[in-house]
Specification:
Strand content: 5-15%
Number of strands: 2
Order of helices and strands: EHEHH
Largest sheet: 2 strands, parallel
Radius of gyration: 13 Å
Length: 77
């Protein structure tokens, strides 16, 4: 819950491979959070592999990430 309070952190809680992929593609997430009590080992390993190999798309999504960075700069985080 508090990871995103740290400047520069974009943590994403993911529940499947698609949310793991989209967190990287659209939000440039740099921390992957997994609910270990809800997911099996095999799925978590697959999600981590997907998350690590997925690149940020940039483009229209970069505007959102840049807004977050600017907010962090101006609000002293």
């Amino acid at each position: 819950m508090t990871a995103n309070k740290v400047s520069g952190i974009r943590a994403a809680l993911c529940h499947d491979e698609l949310t793991a992929q989209m967190s990287r593609r659209h939000n440039d997430a740099n921390v992957l959070c997994l609910p270990a009590d809800l997911l099996g080992d095999s799925l978590m390993r697959s999600m981590v592999r997907t998350w690590l190999k997925t690149d940020f798309e940039g483009g229209r999504h970069a505007r959102r990430v840049n807004k977050i960075r600017e907010y962090e700069k101006t609000h002293g985080q």
